[in-house]
Amino acid sequence: MSYETRVIMNYQFNTCDIIGRGFSSIVYKGINTITKENVAIKVIKRQFSDQLPLIQNEIQILSKLQGRNILKLYEHFTTQNNIYIITEYCRQGDLGQKLKQFGYLRQEYAVAIIRQIIDGIYVMAQQNIIHRDLKPQNILINEDGIKIADFGFAKPLNQLQNEMNVGTPLYMSPETIIKSQYNAKSDIWSLGVLFYEVLFGYPPWQAQTEQELIFKILNQRISFPDVPPVSETVKDFIKQCLIVDPYLRLGITELLKHPLIKRTTKKAEKFVRPTDTESTEQTIKSEIPNSSEPWTSNSSNKKLVYVNCKNPQVNAILNKYLNTKNNQVTNNNTVTKNQPLLDEISLILQSQFSLCIFLNNIISKLKDFKLITPLLNEKCRIIFSKHLQSIKDTIYKQLIESDNKFKFKDWQLFCKENAYSRFSAKFLLENNQFTKTCQEYNQMIKSNKSLIIEYQKYDSEFYQILFGLEWKVIKKIIKNLIIEFNHIIAQNIDTSNLCNKINKSQQIEISFLQQLYYYYEIVDKYYLKEFDEKKFAQESNIQQYMVVKELKISDYLESRQLIKRLMKS
Questions:
Q1: 118 contacts 255 by C-beta, under 8 angstroms
Q2: Does position 269 have pLDDT exceeding 90, yes or no?
Q3: Do residue 293 and residue 392 come from a single domain?
Q4: Which GO terms describe its molecular function (predicted)?
């Protein structure tokens, strides 16, 4: 076979110096005849017209990106027969070749590579671009560092519409495999798979088909072999990248703050999520007791509340409550023969309201914790949000829509009492926050509806909790949540000495664990059979679990004993 030297403008290459091949292209090692600098010259035959959009896209993307960890584009030329793309030359090949040569890389080398890839992803994020095909073969190695290459599938996020799956399935995020959905965190999933492979020599999940792959992702926890050993910080980083729910998966800004990556680097721009502007016909300023103590009227603990009052009946209730002197309603001291029943109504309503506050508190805390089991966080958010939605809607209909959901015998009489106005006002003011919490849940479901429906094929529990409150299934899921969360806490607390102090963050975690266990008991005791509102109101004593108390090692050990019994049940 004969070789020849070819010249294109001020670049020259010999056809024997092949450094890479593609379906429609060959990459040669070349030289800039002016600067004498080595370059890579990709030659694409124009006869492969179906590949031209990818080539043009790669040129356009590379022209926008400027970063030390992005492959540098020098020039591009088009002739009658060929397209030439001139880029920097990476003499050490690609990361895939290194893995073939060495099997895997030591942790310190792998971390150094990942840090540079993250810098490259950050540069792309600044331009609102995602790569969509991050894998070892597309990571080039040069003397001055790592270079992300092959931007044929890359696109600006605002141009992603009705996309087909592109890239390599083993590195695709679950939302991409299932529904061809791409987002700013799709590359983060690919990064997690790539990092795992660099450390151990193989990806975290291996499969022959896409269906088998997604089944394993949704049903098998990510596990780490004992050899080669890697640090817990590395494991945590990979877990954060490989969270199934893209809403919970870390973004590039959060990755830069991870202990594994955090160092002197360019400051990432802070992303502020836009919120929908709430249209309000009337804004009411009111002083109400702290929401954690909804039944006291301690005037020293006040906050400013803004509520949307479109419903005339809501306005009437709030005006009566808020415009009364000192926000107090004069009590009617006349005791009637119906007083025990009226007190029972008040007790039941108060217990249900407290349960709403309790659930709202759990949902807000759950967002801060990353769990190992695939989809466990998502399932629990669905459970708590649906339960909150159900209770708050029932109370609202009881108070405002004259729908006697609780089947109170003396409801009309109770509505004439000051207790009705007082309770209704306090509930309506807090209901604003409950509604926002449920809207976040509804938005999550709406945004991922098709994806979640697909998940049901691989996890039947999703169907059972998404379309109804199936309490036996819920009990099982909450049990798994408690066991896993207890395992997370146990790794960070030394229980060998009862005199050891628990720091503030540990106090919060233990308190949250106790709240989860209490919710499990509520489900087990009251919801597995027909719910008895009166019995719950009399026995639940829910308010004691709504305040974080000072805890000791002995308190945690007591909780652990309860959980050990739970594990055996």
A1: yes
A2: no
A3: yes
A4: ATP binding; protein serine/threonine kinase activity
